[in-house]
Design goal:
six-stranded mixed sheet; disordered C terminus; Nucleotidyltransferase, domain 5; 326 residues; alpha/beta
Length: 326
């Protein structure tokens, strides 16, 4: 993705506007006295740099900050700090960054949603027993690619490729568990397409009562069931969320094994999700429903034919009765 000063300004203006309202709402609830000395980099500048890192194509934050920000972006960020201090500021900006992603980076539901979970590995399998950073926090799970140690990102998107909601769980949590949370499904309405891991009659009935129709494929040993043609077609388009997960991992780099703290893991993940919302072109499907009155015409024609037949039989009975009486 090509970055320009206009793109920098656009991202910073959105982040700064949110941070102003966020601090105004948070100020009455802060305990103690505010710090006398403010940091050189504001919270909005720190969040902007975190988002720009995931849009830049750099593999490490240190290389992006030392080789690009402090050399080529001095006119936009003149009060840069050392890299160690910047890492500390990143950890302190996790709360406003999470609120920014949840409130400003989510799309609107269109009635067609796709859901899937993807593993977030925090280390390689041969180093699971030696990992101390996420000991007692991450979990050992299993995906289609085998066992992993880390977390799961449960993501819901619409047909335009926009995120509707997300949640992070341990790696050993069932994929269907987030759908049982009313706060998670609050922004979802209409059809929800998922893979075979979400098959559950109890969950389908519970979601249907909340206005959500869960559509999944059937397993090999399950009985066949009737399904609308458009649902079969949209189930084949479920690759859209697989593409989004691939972009989040390979372009936004939300998954790597170089984390040195849990706060660093959260800041990297949240900044990657925020960076995805600024992509100029997202994976999407073209779904233009054709509204016609063809079905109503057939129905009206059937009703007219039935009325004619009833009237004809009624007239025949009227004419036939006197003859029989005679």
């Amino acid at each position: 993705m090509t970055l320009s000063d206009d793109k920098f300004t656009e991202i910073f203006c959105q982040v700064d506007t949110f941070c102003i309202h966020f601090h105004q709402a948070l100020a009455p609830h802060i305990l103690g006295n505010p710090p006398k000395k403010k940091p050189k980099l504001s919270v909005s500048e720190v969040i902007t740099l975190m988002i720009l890192f995931h849009l830049s194509g750099y593999r490490t934050m240190k290389g992006f900050y030392m080789d690009y920000v402090k050399i080529h972006m001095c006119h936009l960020f003149p009060n840069t700090v050392s890299y160690n201090r910047f890492v500390e500021l990143m950890a302190s900006a996790n709360l406003p960054l999470a609120m920014f992603v949840k409130s400003c980076c989510m799309g609107s539901c269109t009635g067609i949603s796709f859901m899937d979970s993807t593993p977030l590995r925090v280390c390689k399998n041969k180093r699971i027993s030696r990992n101390k950073v996420f000991e007692g926090i991450a979990g050992l799970g299993k995906s289609t690619m085998g066992f992993f140690f880390g977390f799961k990102l449960h993501l819901v998107v619409n047909d335009k490729g926009e995120m509707l909601n997300f949640v992070i769980t341990r790696g050993n949590v069932d994929d269907r568990q987030p759908l049982k949370d009313p706060a998670f499904i609050k922004a979802i309405t209409g059809k929800l397409y998922a893979d075979k891991g979400y098959i559950s009659a109890e969950l389908t009935n519970a979601l249907f009562c909340d206005g959500i129709h869960l559509v999944t494929q059937i397993r090999n040993k399950m009985k066949n069931c009737l399904m609308e043609l458009k649902d079969k077609i949209l189930l084949r388009k479920r690759s859209i969320i697989e593409t989004i997960n691939d972009e989040l991992k390979n372009m936004c780099q939300i998954e790597h094994s170089r984390h040195r703290s849990v706060a660093n893991f959260l800041s990297n993940l949240l900044a990657g999700l925020a960076a995805y919302s600024f992509f100029p072109k997202k994976p999407a499907i073209k779904y233009d429903p054709l509204h016609t009155n063809q079905l109503s015409l057939i129905y009206n024609r059937t009703q007219v034919m039935r009325t004619i037949k009833l009237r004809a039989s009624h007239d025949y009975c009227i004419e036939f009765l006197p003859c029989s009486a005679a």
